[in-house]
Amino acid sequence: MRYKVLTVDDSKTVRIIVKKAFKGFDCEIIEAANGVEGLAAAAKENPDLILLDITMPVMDGVEMLTKLKSDPALKGIPVIMLTAEGGRDNVLKIAKIGVRDYIVKPFKEEILVEKAGRIIDLKPLSEGPQKAKSIFDPATILVVEDKPAIIQQIQEGLKHTPWKIHGVQTTGEAIDFCSKNTPDLIIISLSLPEDAAFTLFRLVRQNVKTKYTPIFALVVKTETTVQQQAQQVGFSYIVTKPIEIPELESKIAKAMNLDTSQRYFAMDGDVFVMRLPENCSQTVVGEVTNYLKPKIAGAVDSGIVKALIDLHELKGLNMAVIKLLIQAMQICKELALQYALVGNPQIVSECKGFEDTRNWQFHESIADAKASFSRSAQTAGAA
Amino acid sequence: MPTIDQISEAVFRETINRAVQDVFKTMLGKTATLADASPATNADGTPWEHPVHISGQHVVGTVGFIGDISGLIYLYLEDSFANEVASHMLGMTLEEIEEAGHEVVNDAVGELTNMTVGTFKNQLADKGFPCKLTIPSILRGSNFSIEPVSSATRRIYRFQVGDHAIVADLLMKSGD
């Protein structure tokens, strides 16, 4: 749902600053230059929040607020005063008419957004589904861990990714980092002293910019009590130490909603290629299985008739991989897609050992497999 | 009820200093330093009435306050600095500001003055002098002087913001 925020201020400068402040969030800003325009806009647009100045020509903010609160249709709209009119007595008097918050100018844009975020559920625009990023896009991951060796291990383990791993050792540094940057994912060590991890979790969740940022907890495998606690609080995922990097990488990709399909599926000229990596863990098989049907169907839809299943990097077979391959070949057959397999000697020999895979025909290289397509096309042509 | 005469020069100075510093820091991220303050009277008690000497094109914002104390503040900005201020507040480049014209700069300087006078008078309100703000207006030119009538006291505060000098000219109605 796109929220509507009505800013009522005679200063265009303030209205522009308000627009600027909310630019990164999924909300629409409606403008009015005085109380009369403000009431009309409130009735017409039914905003979710009103930011109201006091000193304005035609009708000032106090009169508009009073009229707003006496109108049954409008009185429920939350109002934040945004005005240079402060002073304790004045603020108290206006607060009594019914305002949700009171910001005295000068103000920082972040404070405005933070206070608005307590009333409406502001969503950063980059979180929207329209911006689904792929694994090849850069992202920022913040790791909060008091043991530098762990930060280093994560940085080292993920250095092949385009992700920038920023490590800090204290919650203070983490908050400072979040105020200047918007990390795409945060990993917090539960071993930080004095429950700092949980305090930090709450602070990160309260900040509108990071309200929806996935947060992972980092904890020793055997500490189940604290793991449960983290799950209850709402950590997105629990990473256990010793850290298994491939597992962590896959969970990060999933939490950030990244499209990992390009890792396994590609187009090579007019040939659709499905490639399995060296280590086909349970997670990888799961990922590929999810993409399988839509990816092959998509290729067929765009006019592709040839598919290559490339296993030359694969180190070994297991039942999950075999099941995946059978499924892939089945889908190709159903969609009348011509397919060929590429394998290494290890895979070719392992295939001989299973009943289901005994008769699979492998090509030694991608070039060979492609050549086989043209041969069969010629044969078909000759026939 | 407290009267205006009970507010010391030091309080005026500290109040305006805090207001200018707070607004420039919050809205522009800039540090303003009070360079010079001229009290309402000369050493012999006669009213101090020298005008603000300006050289070059200036943009001056004015906002008044009316209530248990009444007066107004003129905030003098050099023309080029006014453009810089608008550019910073609106998130626009200097070229865009120049293209947008005086109206945009006037509005930004008006708002900056509004915030400054607001912060100034809110502090006085908390000391027992409630008053309300007026809407801002803008004066532009290179060769003018603003002069108070005899029933007003005048205090002038000069600030340095980076390479730029700004002046806050505080005119107040004398105590009744």
Question: What does this 3D model show about the protein?
Answer:
The complex is a heterodimer of chains A (383) and B (176). Chain A is 43% helix and 19% strand. By secondary structure, chain A is an alpha/beta fold. Chain A folds into three domains: 3-117, Response regulator (Rossmann fold), CATH 3.40.50; 130-255, Response regulator (Rossmann fold); 261-382, STAS domain (Transcription Regulator spoIIAA), CATH 3.30.750.24. In chain A, the strands form three sheets. Chain A has a five-stranded parallel sheet, with helices on both faces. In chain A, strands 7-6-8-9-10 form a five-stranded parallel sheet, with helices on both faces. Chain A has a five-stranded mixed sheet with strand order 11-12-13-14-15, sandwiched between helices. In chain A, strand 4, helix 4 and strand 5 (101-104) form a beta-alpha-beta unit. Chain A is elongated and about 90 Å long. Chain B is of the alpha+beta class and 176 residues long. Chain B contains four helices and seven strands. Chain B has helices at residues 9-28, 79-90, 94-100, 102-126; strands at 32-38, 58-67, 71-78, 131-133, 137-141, 152-161, 164-173. In chain B, strands 1, 2, 3, 4, 5, 6 and 7 form a seven-stranded antiparallel sheet that branches. The interface between A and B is medium-sized, with 25 and 28 residues.
